[in-house]
## 1
Amino acid sequence: MNGASVLSLRNVTKQFGDAVAVDDVSLDLHAGEFVALLGASGCGKSTTLRLLAGLEQVGSGQVFLRGADVTGDTASARNVALMFQSYALYPHVTVYQNIAMPLRLRRLSVVNRLPGIRLLRAPVRNTIADIDVKVRRVADMLRIGPLLARKPGQLSGGQQQRVALARALVRDPSAFLLDEPLSNLDTQLRADTRDEIRALHKRTGCPFLLVTHDQSDALSMADRIAVMIAGRIVQVGSPETIFNRPRLRAVAEFIGHNRMNILPRGMAAALHPAGAMHDLGVRPEDLSIDRSGPLEVQVESFAYHGEETILRLRAADATPLRAVLRGDAAVPPQGGTVRLSAPLSALHAFDTAGLRVTL
Amino acid sequence: MIGLRRLVTDLALAGPAALAMMLFIFLPVVVVVVLSFTDYQFGARSFDWVALDNYADLLGSRHGRNALINTLIYAAIVIPASVGLGLLVALGLHAIARTMPRVSAVLRAVYFLPVAATLVAMAVAWQMLLHPSLGLINQWLSALGLPGRQWLSDRGIVLYTLAAIGVWQSVGYNMVLFLAGLAAIPRSLYDAAAVDGAETGWDRFWIVTWPMLGPTTLFVMIVTCANAFRVFETVATMTGGGPAFASDTIVYALYREGFVYFKAGYASAITVVFFGALVILTAIQIVVVERRVHYR
């Protein structure tokens, strides 16, 4: 996994007018690696991706491709593949021509791209035959062979996404950047596509960078996650590290299917002595109803989700809390009080600056 | 019961417009077609059927053919020139709109002025500009050491002068349509083209801009075509079809025959030919081009 760095940003800053979109960001994408760039919308992650691809020029800092400085290079010179959130397929040409476009643009000159020129020149004929082989191979890999003659407008969203993937993969890119690839898909297709993109990554060995606002996409797909908040990368680490040892309170609250409970310092001392000085975070899944638990709370309401039930609770000092019960657990009556406990290993302490403190 | 009520509602909603269309569009067309087979003159008490004589007159006579050919030459210049220039100007203004929004807006207004202005008033201004001895254009030419010309009274030039004015007048309209078309092209397609290896503006134009402008171009072509074949105001106000019918066009001939000489039958035949030609032209454009510009 820790191969040579393929694509990297060094202290890159990008401003649009007065607004700083990307603030002193450094990021490495290593050979064969799958990195997720995770952040809320508007945090600068898409701009970071465009800077890597060469669609935006950096304000300050440098971009490296396999050790070479490519800061001033255009997108096509960097040979980075990018899959767009909107897919950005060319609507006027067929699926085949969409997939062939990157190869035609790179390997045929303007003159040789004219229709009918292959009848006149043998080398052009060979290039076109070679392109044909590549297009059909990648189309078979993504199971869109039968769709090659259609126009993008005749395809479903999932099919269009495969075409966009094929167009990005057809030319052996130096790195593969995906901009929110799953956000336009329904739940079922989403799960399938996650698996598929993972498999595609294994198969091509190409470094992948996934830009997403969805923490579960990042956790389930990536080898490493870079969390971005307000234009800065605040933590980089494995999904386990990001989930279990968030470096900042903001990261802790962002990661996780259910938002982490934060018990303010003072009342948090009920759970752990460190709670006297630090805020304590505990995930709703880690709270359990325990007759002899240290924390007494009132049940405000509950929501049944099938495999789990989410309780909305309120502590004595009015701090709102949430707890997740297994679907088959007995739900306490609304308005009643229960006692909660949490294992020591599930507690996260944060100081006044929001930085993690080791317990 | 409900069916009847719906029928009444439908009739009440669509009826008046349908009736007006029948009365003011379809009926007159039928009358014109019928008249074109007669020798009817305005004010006459009777008429005779002359079968296709009027059509034979139009296509067979020197004057009829002259008007047709003049109109075709005029259209052959005005259509490509005003569509091409309109696109060129739109591309330029669109490109500078981000860096120099003020300049772009001012230029856009300037190009659009001829569209907003009354053509008859503009024709008077053109007449003064083109005046052989007093006009600015000949004065500028002589300042450059070039010979002046009789722009509106030289038989070999007058049609091209009118065509140039026709282009001047329609470039602004086409530009505005193209600008709207350009604004609707998603940025992500240009990004995709850049990532795919389109290095030059030339590549980007042919891969993204031109195909994405297809529907706009079709519309612009149809509108420009119809306007070019309908050329009338400049001819009527500036040349009267002269000198010696050198700038006679179909619609001007139609006006002259119908409203000056009161030959309603002959004028109707011209109208029918003109109408038919426009319908066929538009149909061809839609059938042939439509399939290639709406990517469904």
Note: Chain A touches chain B through 29 residues (CB under 8 Å).
## 2
Amino acid sequence: MMLRLKAKALDFYTYPPIGGDDWRYGYAAARVRALQTQMIPKSTLVDMANAGTFEQAAESISTTEYIPVASKTLAELEQVLIAQRRSLREQFARLMIDNSIVKLFKTRDDFANMRLAVRRRVTDKAIGTDYSSQGNLNPEIFEEVFEQEKYELLGEHIQNAVEQAILAYYTDRDICRIDHIIDRAQAEYNIQTALKMKSEFLTGLFSIKIDLTNIITMLRLKFTESEKRKVFLPGGYIEIERLKQAVDTEYDSIGQLFYATPYYRIVSVGANYVGTEKSFLKAEQASENHLSGYLNTTSQITSGPQPVIAYLLQKEKEIRTVRLILTAKKNLLDKKMILDRIGE
Amino acid sequence: MAANVNATRMELLRLRKRVALASRGHRLLSDKRDEISRQLVQIAKLIQPLRKTVEQKLLETCRRFMLARASMEPEDNKSSLEIPTKKFSLAVKFSTIMNVTVPQLTKEMEGQIICYGFATTSGELDVALLSLEQAFDSLIELAEKEKQAYLLATELQMTRRRVNVLEHIVIPELKQSIRYIFDKLAEAERDNISRLMKITDIIRG
């Protein structure tokens, strides 16, 4: 792991390699290719953003798998989208032959649940059971785990993260430290598991995600004039020193620091937008586009887990985009703001 | 009122004193009314741009928050905002404007408004929360001014009623009673004189 974290030489131009074919995934890859044709095209999303009202925006996707949502409230809309995401994840679990990959993606919910549970634990609030049920851990055991401090029931990786997070909180009583420790543990766990599976694609995917998170974090630290520097995640392609240096650089010059990396455009466009518009819409949109670009390269794979994972992530992004546009339309937000966020 | 009044010289003197007092009160209350009006106009002039600023800032905060909320996963939304770290307390002092007790608000804030990690949250959430933090100063000033305006307006309405009552009811009625007593006393005087003249005529006859 340490070797992986120290090796920073980039041996690719824009996207890291995605690995080879795995012929066990012939059916899954073909199924995903068929499902990808049913995804909402970019032009429809732009039409939704340009629609005059919420009803018109909802009407644009009424022919897709999203049920007509024109008459629904935001809370009902949220439930529809959560149900959509749940069925997507179930479909992903059915299509994946390697259960370890399903488990790996389910840990996202475990770590999210832990952020909430640890916060409640250290602030002496009731642990409760209102957590995401789509993780590997059953939320009903959380009360027992935290009240009796039986952290071993959570599994080794989460146990370590929780113990470190609690310790970090009591060191300086800063609630943000819980999230930073759990974020770091999650990033390390993802990279470690991907390396253990010897999956070139997953290693590349998580490294890109870490880099993109670090870049946005760098812009956020600069925008909020925060003094925190230990919040960058390890395991990306970009050196953390470069990110720390970028925090203390002017917005106009930040892009130059990343000139030799695949993220030059994201950083320069994002930093300029933050500097002029005081908003992260462009930076977030550019980083999502970069990740989508990497996921799109899985189309070169005839058969393998890569297209299935790519479909899961692209579909989750689509659900978030639909939520974003409909929420924006329901609240009469500016069209330009939506288009800036979805990238048109 | 005139019908119930005792037409005596004592009552006449008492009513004259009351008219003088009511006139003095009327003059003082008129001055108070004018001053409160002036203060109210000044505060209203301050409130108008302040309210626009606050509404704009809060609208911006809501917009950013909506965008952040929509672009984040629901479970991340929940965990990031459930335990706030910013503590906010409001101290209220009182001062007087034209004998009206008005509040003066001062805020005390401690802790960071950003209470979450960066990996699973949107940057727009930072923008929304910082915008909300900045809006607090204007929001508290607006609350203070609006409360002052409300209290002054209530006092103005009450003072205006008092002035109107004195001007249109109390003083005219007192003057009417004085005139009535004066007339009654004058009539009694004339009656007395004529009676005396009649007695004189009888004695001389």
Note: The mean pLDDT of chain B is 91.
## 3
Amino acid sequence: MSDTGGETAPHYLLKLYVTGKSAKSEVAIANLRRLCAEELEGRYDLQIIDVLEHPEAAETDKILATPTLIKRLPPPLRRVIGDLSDRHKVLLGLEVRPELPSRDRDPSAP
Amino acid sequence: MTDRAIPASVEKLPTGIASLDVIAKGGLPKHRTTLVSGTAGSGKTIFAAQFLAAGITDAGESGVFVTFEESAEDIRANMRSFGWDLAAWEREGKLAFVDASPDPEVEVIESGAFDLGALLARVRHAVQKVGATRVSVDSLGAVFSQFSDHSVIRRELFRIASALKDMGVTAVLTAERVVDYGPIARFGVEEFIADNVLILRNVLDEESRRRTIEILKFRGADHQKGEFPFTIVPGTGLVVLPLSAIALRQKSSDVRISSGVKELDEMCGGGFFRDSVILLSGATGTGKTLTVTQFLKGGADAGERCLLLAFEESREQLFRNASGWGVDFERMERDGVLRVVCDYPDAAGLEDWLVTIQSTVREFKPRRVALDSLSALERIGSAKAFREFVIGVTSFIKQQEITGLLTTTTASLMGGTSITEAHISTLTDSIILLRYVEMFGEMKRGLTVLKMRGSQHDRNIREFTIDGSGMHLGRAFRNVTGILAGTPVHISPTDVERVWSQFDAELSGRRRSTDHD
């Protein structure tokens, strides 16, 4: 409410770990790009890391599952695993409040 | 490896875990995955780490440790007590961790389909980085607890297991069981993921913990069946005691050694055999510790190193007793011909005692070992565990081609057999009985050689006396019968011949039956 105002809107630092060009990777990338464009326009940095090319990065971040989205900033550190198809849960994980909470909500979500 | 009965199709990789390779007939099937399942505290993580440690130290093979439960840092710390410096091996490029332990600080949210592609990429990377041929994964159950969608995990674990095989590594995967006798593992799929299944058990057996290892299946490869006791030793790790395996290979020597008492040597047909185990049975005070002392002195006089494992009396008491019989234990220790290991039986479990005895013998290299008494050790474990202990001790002594004298205490003063004796008399080569004999209102001591495998011996029951210079065997008791049963009865000389011939028949009959055990 008060912190949704422009002056305190936090900057997001996101990392998305994927495995090569698998279907799940493509879906996750597309879902995340769309969500960022809609919710975090102009205030996020997204790094996409392929674990097949950078396994040592996955080791450092202790990644097991792919896709895994890491929210490094703002704190706290959060992880969302999966192809990010459950938009509501991704927003929950990123602690981004949707502008119109009822519009995109998954009907099966609580 | 002399045992080559197995077809060459499944190659074995020696694990380096003492004696496991014997029951596994060469080791774990190479380039395959082996599930090691056990309840909490059964030694799974130690097994996983030892498999890698043995590869690094014994075979020059690098390893990868994938941990899902404890952090790499915890494992490094916990394994130090076994003498495995994991951190040093990591620095030397012989070991790599894949730390997949959960981070309690970070909240994880699941949103949509996922796989364990990242984990697989990390394992693959670690294997390549150190050139690993061995991989340990500890434990599969902990992967399930990190994710809510178990069907995905099941599928992914199959994928990882098959990827491990494609990499050509030999892998150990651990899994939790809920109970020691029941389903193989908690999630019901673990045993299908791996080619081979090994079970570690940690069972409460008559108030003492008994650890066993069992090879449940080796796909397409031979192994010994059944549960084998093992113990966990600081500085070493898991030590498996494969009883049937060691009991088979025993040489029999016909070299005689002195018992330390000249007359007893004569009774035995020239002394004890070099690689034999002698059971000495008697009630308290009949002279068991004295016979042991004589035996050790006999060794020391011949310049042989002797080891005394004493569980009945304190060190001071033993030394005082010995000097009362003219034997100077202190000097013998100073001269390096004697070592006395004196401890409370309850200080460790039977498996631990067996390992302690084995390592002491290997290190001190005695020619004679005396254990006083088995009865004291019998109290600390179940009958089964005790029997396995005695088999372990006797076969180890014979393997080392040394002489063992084991004592056992009979419950009744006047005779009868001890429980220990009933259990183990067939395992020993010779049996000597010490008995109290009441003669005309006077207590005397009698000794007889009941059994002497592979040799003629004196069947008489001889009277013996004890003085400041030790044990002295006198003449045979005559005109008395029932000594061994604890009920000596005087009989008229006319009956004597008949009775003794019966006694002889019984003895030789018993000897025949035990010799064929």
Note: The radius of gyration of chain B is 28 Å.
## 4
Amino acid sequence: MPTVGPSGIILSAAERPVIELKFPLNGDARDALDRGADLIVTRDPALIDYGSGRPSFQSFPLPWNRTYLLLQPAGAQPIAIGKTEEERRSLAQDAVQVEARAAEPVDWLGSGAECPRPAVATPSLSPRLAYVAGDEVAQALAGRLVALAGPGLSLRAIGLEPAAFDTSLRQGTELAYIHAVPRRSLDPCTELAGLPSGMTMLPLIDTRPRAIVRKGSPPLTVDWDGAVRVIRP
Amino acid sequence: MSFRTRLFLAILVAVLLPLAALTLGVRREMDRRLTREYEAGVTAAASALEASLARESANVAARLRALVSELGGDNRFRLAIVQNDPASRHYLLNYAEGAMRLSGLALLQLQDSTGRILSSGHFRNQFDQLQPELPRILSGLADSLVLVRTRTPDTTLLALTRIDSVRLAGRRVSLVGGIEARRWLQATPQLGGDIATGIVYPGAPPQPAAAERVIREVQLPFLDLLHPAVRIDTARLQVTQTLETVNALRRDVTRWVLVALALTLAAAVLCAAWLSSRISRPLRELSEKTAAIDLDRLDQSFETGRTDEFGALSRLLGAMTDRLRASSARLREAERRVAVGDLARQVNHDIKNGLVPIRNVLRHLAQVATESPDSLPGIFAARRATLESSVEYLDTLARNYDRLSPGAERRHCEINGIVAEVLRNTGPQDGRVRAQLADALPSVLGDGLMIRRVLENLVGNALDSVAARPEGSVTVVTEPVAGSTGADRIRITVADTGAGMTGEQLERAFDDFYTTKTGGTGLGLSIVRRLILDLNGTLKVETEPGVGTRVMVELPVAQQEAAG
């Protein structure tokens, strides 16, 4: 049974390894490494770089588990960027600062034809490219697309709070959206429920996190969806 | 239009015209002075703006120089230019963002010699875009700030920029850096709350139509990177003055001026009405008195204490009335002489009328005495009433004619002595008659009998008036007064606390044969008025029903009369 203490949560069993989740983790994650954390899963390049520089840690990449899509309501003026492999590779290498690659097809995106999805009533004329505020990868992709679109399109990026982003996405009030989805899903209809039908969806890049592991820690394994699990020694 | 109306309008115009001129003058002077003060303030603000612009230009140049110096020793940056491996490229792409943040700039862009953006601080992912015009144009204006309109991922940026450059590994790298123009403008100290600054450039959104006017402008080069055809243009930093305060001040002044005008108008109306009334009232009174004068009514008093023109006019009219009164007396004397004949004939006729019955009775008695002496006593007794009636008629006739007798004789008369004799003849009145006689009164020139008849009539009327009032009293006062022409006069006042008279009664009191008393002849006051006119005197009556009557007779003293 998990034990909840003032400094975190301890998951323990008589014959299994102990996982202690220490808080707070919302500050400088490097402090967690310095304070004895055994495992950190992150996409932060600065933290990865810091962990790589510590001889007591080693890092290894986890599976590509997130894909960033360019969504556009039907009838909106198309943003003709990211259609080629070369453009997507450039986005992955230069526009974002996390570990990324040109997007590869997401299997479940095409398998949801029978899923119930909201329809966009009217296409938007707003020349804005929306993303979820706080998602630095989406923000960087939006910035790059704005730069490549040039001043003629008057495109500009805008960060929306998650709830506002979901509402706007369902209603299709913006010219385009940068939206992150998991690469694998057990229930595609759940993932597609927030994406209106009739929207064009262009995968741009895939990203993956890295695991920073203290040397000598219990062995780990990675599950099918990219989750890190501790295995019995 | 009456004199009073003309006077009223003249006063109004005299007050309002200067006030209107004052109002216009105050507003004009206020405008002039405010404009001058604002111009001085705006000139100072424009100077401060230019000085601030020069300081910021030097600051931006210094920051770019510092960055150039740092870049010269940054091997990692040099490697990123020389070799294009992914790790170095990320350092290059992120370089401007960090450098811009550290240097406090709002715009930093590194470009190679072709104009390709190597790294951008304000728009990180604008790398590899070509903007050859920016370094080219800025290089031509190296000593001054250039206003550049460019963009970030989510908005447009208006920056005051300069350019510097560094040569690394044989390649020239341009650094374009700048500060945010509007933030700088907001941080620039302003002079006065009514002075504002703004930026105007081609393609700028229209300014709100605020009540303001542009006073000064500072021009600087402008480059619009969002325009398809990038070219150098001119932007203006405007120093403007809002007119709200001036307009509010004007409105306040106008409002108070209107209030002052309204108050002044009201005061002027009141003053004009009061002044015109005050000025015209003496004229109206003189006019009324003059209108009341005729040969039978020359006893109007023009006495006044005024020393102005109205007083002089009043005294002039008084003197004229005095002369008319004297002329009237002489005319009356002449008429009286003519009338004596008529009167004699009337007396003759009246006496004959009275004597006829007596003569007839006497003839009848003589006849009876001759023819039947025994019946004489009976006949006499029967005709005696006729005799007595005729004798009474003649007696009454004699008394009335005696009252009308003109027999004027002028000599020095002592008023106090006459008053005392009249009061003695009134008999015992149980203290109801009082006398207040001034000492050492000068004598008047006239007929003592006439004066006595005047006083007997006035005192008799007064006693009749108080007869029905147990508490009623009669007071006779003598006193010296100054006349309208300055001559000394003697005033005799007979006052009673009797029934008084109404206005109508007073109007008719001096008419012949008008009386309110049972058995009165109606000749008393008529005779009094004529006698006083004959004595060259004046008569004034003050009366109030239920309160009493005060009759004032003024007679000229003997010396004045003799001198006149």
Note: The longest helix of chain B spans residues 3-72.
